[in-house]
Amino acid sequence: MKSVFVTVGTTSFDDLIATVCSPAALQVLQSRGYQKLVLQVGRGELKPAPRSSQSVAVEAFRFKDSLAEDLRRADLVISHAGAGSCLETLEKGKPLVVVINEKLMNNHQLELAKQLHRDGHVLCCNCSTLVETLQSMDLSALKPFPPGQPEKFALFLDKVVGFQ
Q1: pTM of the predicted model as reported, rounded to 2 decimal places
Q2: Average pLDDT over residues 93-121
Q3: What is the 8-class DSSP label of residue 10?
Q4: 134 — alpha (psi -120 to 50), left (phi > 0) or beta?
């Protein structure tokens, strides 16, 4: 069963949860062969009720000690642009769509997402373009992230935030 895992990390990003649960997004996911949507909703106000009557089954939870199993099971990950969430997903070799939270001030996440996108590791969008991104995505074009090299990621982050 092809599944999508959505994570907002330890924050709240209700716009992302609402967008990915919209009829338009669910229809696109179904048309691309996905049958299950698992949402990690963090501290958000929204926590959609489980439903499986639709073509895409939806499950939601707030937090777990580890997201490793959810990431392992996912065929596609949709995530906020937090460094931890991006790195963990990329290290697991999963295709990643990074969604920018445009409501954040001093948005270092925007720089991280843009750099990962420029380097060909992720697809990048915002909530208003997520459905279009899911519709047009070519996951085979994504480049693998070099595994097990935290120092390279640290250098990458230094470049993103301007320390280098």
Answers
A1: 0.89
A2: 86
A3: T
A4: alpha
